[in-house]
């Protein structure tokens, strides 16, 4: 029979305190979930970029993305390799194939 | 007085007062619950038979409507069942020795809590208890999900219930609570949520977490459908719930049916609503937001990739974008191979491997045009700007050779023909289907190249037509804009301007209730 000092009724007011008095057990409930719970439930809009984005009609977040990314530079290595390939009169005369196969 | 009786007396008091907070504090189930719960367990094991315990519960929690005092609640039958299950849980559960059995007991307990919650008058007092129990169930489930050796025995069983994964069955149970909350009629759809409706997204997010963990994403469709039909606007809920929900909805759109525009809409909203201090959350969101935007032809800017949350993502996505810009299949494939494990784990390997090929072909065609096009010397010339399909074919054959392991040699002016030398072993590398330009080691033919060009024109990623007889791609509108700008319009703009069937609107994401 439990003594008066250990009844749950007395611990109801401060279950969190009680928990801290317990020896720490190895946790079996993982906390490394991929998208963890946020430590707080709510925060004001002004802590985020969303408010500025709404006020600017979407303009403020545009700098995060590049919509025109095409590359006109043909001085890179890959272009230099292709430049040579494209000088071949036709694919069937591609020297690497005719010579090496 | 025994602990069981003291416990039941307090529970009855809380029920009378409809004190949901105290019920949640008392009805603990976690492994780190205070010592009293373990003493309660010892008492349940040593001093009670099941029938005797049932009688005591029935006596302490009489579900007799005649006792009802105005303003006070009385126990109801499904609540009594729930409390019986609660004692059974504490008597039989063992987090140290048998997690699978503990999961089964907790599942039964949460399920009975879900039933008690549906009581039209008093059920809402169990809402917070439902949240805390579901939270423990979800965390225990995630633990088991990471330890398949513990649950293997269950899966060898033949009946349908057992074949379901642990995560799937937990998700189903919590979904019952989600449905009870969604169907609560305490408030209408447009006003701030009250009663059980305040918890709609807490439970939706728990279910979604479990469905993603057990890779049963398609089962989330019903949740989104039901939310679309009944939920108040998402904007009426706290920020953490909004962001978490939009993250899962974005990932669902990304994975189901390749709705990258919808995915990008959800994930961008989630990202912009997450304060910078939550770096790991922003990293998770950006992982899929960047991937979705690249698939839509919108690349992450240098300033985005320099943010703290991009620290681990920049080495993955920056080289990928560089390869796409240059049409460089060789770097692209090498980079995917280097990060294959990570991309696979994130569910990105398959979409990035296959769905970015049109962008690579587009850039390769563009680069080939830049290298081969000779503008007419006569400014009045009416000759169309064209790309010779044979030139693109030559480039493609070269790329395929490189993918098969042919190496660059020291090409010199005197002997330019030795640009490529065969692989060291003398035989081309055996390519998996996704590693070749067309299909593994399949030879790239002029027909393949022409088909690719025709597909790019059809998708609006290149602007012009194929003159099949002449073996050329002819650019339309070169005079006005210049041949390169006219022939290769912005991918992002082209995708934005696409028109769809009447019933498909990429801005309207099913499940995201806005107004």
UniProtKB/TrEMBL annotation, chain A:
GO terms for cellular component: nucleus; proteasome regulatory particle, lid subcomplex. It is found in: Nucleus. Residues 30-48, 67-76 have a biased composition (Acidic residues). Keywords: Nucleus, Proteasome. GO terms for biological process: double-strand break repair via homologous recombination; mRNA export from nucleus; proteasome assembly. Component of the 26S proteasome, a multiprotein complex involved in the ATP-dependent degradation of ubiquitinated proteins. Belongs to the DSS1/SEM1 family. This is 26S proteasome complex subunit SEM1. The lineage of its organism: Eukaryota, Fungi, Dikarya, Ascomycota, Pezizomycotina.
Automatic annotation (TrEMBL), chain B:
One of its GO terms (molecular function) is RNA binding. InterPro entries: Csn12-like. This is PCI domain-containing protein. It comes from Clonostachys byssicola.
């Amino acid at each position: 029979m439990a003594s008066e000092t250990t009844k749950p009724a007395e611990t109801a007011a401060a279950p969190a305190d009680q928990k801290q008095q317990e020896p720490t057990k190895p946790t079996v409930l993982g906390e490394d979930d991929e998208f963890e719970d946020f430590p707080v439930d709510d925060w004001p809009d002004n802590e985020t970029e969303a408010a500025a984005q709404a006020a600017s009609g979407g303009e403020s977040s545009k700098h995060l993305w590049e919509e025109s990314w095409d590359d006109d530079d043909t001085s890179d290595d890959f272009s230099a390799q292709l430049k040579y390939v494209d000088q071949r009169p036709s694919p069937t005369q591609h020297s690497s194939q005719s010579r090496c196969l | 007085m025994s602990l069981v009786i003291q416990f039941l007396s307090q529970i009855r008091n809380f029920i009378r007062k409809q004190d949901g907070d105290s019920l949640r504090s008392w009805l603990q189930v976690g492994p780190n619950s205070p010592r009293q719960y373990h003493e309660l367990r010892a008492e349940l094991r040593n001093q009670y038979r099941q029938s005797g315990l049932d009688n005591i519960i029935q006596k302490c929690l009489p579900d007799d409507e005649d006792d009802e005092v105005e303003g006070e609640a009385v126990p109801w039958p499904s609540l009594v069942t729930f409390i019986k299950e609660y004692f059974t849980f504490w008597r039989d559960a063992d987090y140290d020795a048998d997690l699978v059995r503990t999961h089964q007991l907790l599942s039964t307990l949460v399920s009975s809590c879900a039933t008690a919650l549906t009581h039209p008058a008093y059920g809402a007092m169990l809402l917070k208890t439902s949240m805390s129990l579901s939270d423990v169930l979800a965390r225990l489930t995630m633990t088991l999900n990471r330890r398949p050796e513990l649950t293997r025995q269950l899966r060898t069983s033949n009946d349908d219930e057992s074949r379901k994964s642990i995560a799937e069955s937990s998700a189903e149970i919590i979904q019952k609570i989600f449905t009870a909350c969604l169907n609560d009629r305490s408030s209408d759809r447009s006003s701030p949520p009250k009663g059980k409706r305040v918890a709609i997204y807490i439970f939706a997010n728990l279910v979604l977490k479990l469905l993603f963990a057990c890779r049963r994403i398609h089962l989330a469709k019903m949740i989104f459908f039901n939310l679309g039909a009944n939920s108040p606007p998402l904007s009426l809920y706290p920020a953490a719930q909004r962001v978490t929900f939009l993250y899962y909805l974005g990932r669902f759109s990304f994975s189901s049916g390749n709705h990258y525009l919808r995915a990008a809409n959800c994930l961008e909203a989630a990202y912009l609503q997450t304060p910078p201090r939550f770096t790991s959350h922003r990293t998770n969101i950006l992982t899929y937001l960047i991937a979705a935007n690249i698939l839509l032809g919108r690349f992450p800017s240098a300033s985005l990739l320099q943010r703290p949350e991009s620290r681990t993502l920049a080495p993955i996505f920056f080289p990928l974008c560089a390869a796409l810009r240059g049409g460089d299949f060789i770097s692209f494939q090498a980079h995917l191979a280097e990060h294959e494990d990570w991309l696979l784990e994130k569910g990105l390997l398959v979409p990035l491997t296959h769905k970015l090929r049109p962008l690579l072909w587009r850039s390769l065609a563009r680069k080939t045009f830049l290298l081969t096009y000779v503008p007419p010397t006569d400014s009045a010339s009416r000759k169309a700007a064209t790309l010779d399909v044979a030139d693109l074919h030559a480039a493609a054959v070269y790329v395929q050779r490189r993918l098969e392991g042919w190496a660059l040699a020291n090409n010199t002016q005197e002997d330019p023909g030795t640009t490529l030398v065969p692989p060291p072993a003398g035989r081309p590398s055996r390519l998996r289907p996704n590693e070749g330009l067309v299909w593994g080691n399949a030879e790239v033919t002029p027909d393949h190249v022409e088909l690719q060009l025709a597909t790019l024109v059809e998708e609006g990623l290149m602007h012009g037509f194929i003159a099949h007889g002449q073996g050329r791609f002819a650019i339309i509108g070169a005079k006005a804009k210049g041949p390169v700008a006219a022939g290769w319009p912005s991918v992002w703009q082209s995708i934005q301007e696409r028109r769809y069937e009447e019933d498909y609107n990429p801005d309207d994401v099913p499940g995201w209730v806005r107004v």
